[in-house]
Design a protein that fits this description.
By secondary structure, the chain is an alpha+beta fold. It has one domain. The protein has 6 helices and 5 strands. The chain has helices at about 25-35, 40-45, 55-75, 80-95, 110-120, 185, and strands at about 130, 140-145, 145-155, 160-165, 170-180.
Amino acid sequence: MTTLQPAIGRRAFATPYVPSLAVGAVSKVIEGQIENLQKPSPTFASQGTATLPRTSLDERLFDVLAQFKIRTSQVAMHLNRDWRTRLFGQFDSLLNVEDWEPLDRPPTIESFATFLRLLVFLKPQRRPGLGATATGELIASWTNGNDRLTIECLPQDLVRWTVSVTINEERERAAGITPVSRLPAVLAPYGPDRWFADANHVPA
């Protein structure tokens, strides 16, 4: 599969990011609903070994697609029904077996958990374009004219983001790694409303 990988340097973290305890009731509910997403299925557990899974590519992609839809339904109350239905269609397209090679690694549940958290917290009115890296991370991207925002969903609620935007007739580019909860503040200088209407709002 042709993968989209932002050209950003890797950054090492001494300790994994842990969401702050100073969150409101809604955030705690969301964390509880998404906590189970961090646990890989037997299919994903086998991918950590040196040998290839015995299941076929078609079976692996079907398993991933089913897990994505089931886990999205677990936070359905936070997503508009039509928005969610169209998102499912994007999953179908992304995981179409004809677009993948036998040795490709499907997106991981850990990455998908971060992606879901991104949607729940930011509530973008525009659905992102979806892609995947060779290492199993989901990529969400929003484009408005020549302005582009790309977010790679990493495990542990971390995202790697890049922006390319014109501000005051000057072209600006920036990139970084941040917890999902800090994205609104990090993106604020670049006018994120151009990509998703309520980017500056994160539920308390």
